[in-house]
Amino acid sequence: MKNNSFKKTFGIASAIISLALAPAAMAEDLITLKGDVMVVKTVTGEDGIQRDELVGPETVVPGDRLVFTTGYSNDGVEPVENFVVTNPIPKAVKLADESGSFMVSVDNGRTYIALAALPTVTVDNGEDGSRSARAEDATHIRWKIARIDPGSSGKLTYSAIVR
Q: Which residue of 18, 44, 47, 56 has the fewest CB atoms within a 10 Å radius of its CB?
């Protein structure tokens, strides 16, 4: 039984890491993207105060909090305008952010809307058939960057919880 638990945990970690490290959008050769994922761990310092630290995802288990980051940089000599970065949210996690400068999709990337304006989703658990969508229903996340000047860079992040 313990071996199956390890395989499930290892499988979740592997899937999360590979998705985070895959470039999410590659429009124009001017922009470089780099994905990363970290686990939020609460540690107690020598002073007795608890703090959250970001650590590598060696092992993740259901309930762990994760931070996904997509770094971007304009390596060209021209500005890039209206650059869109779209990331699928791994099925092994649910979106934890309740705010942010991103749009989400609850229909596998077909449409995007602000999180606060989520529509209804179909429910397949014996209920009436639909309910208001929640952050955990998001399948994709998208940012639109108005302008990235040559030589500039930044990071896009979102938080998730392992299912």
A: 47
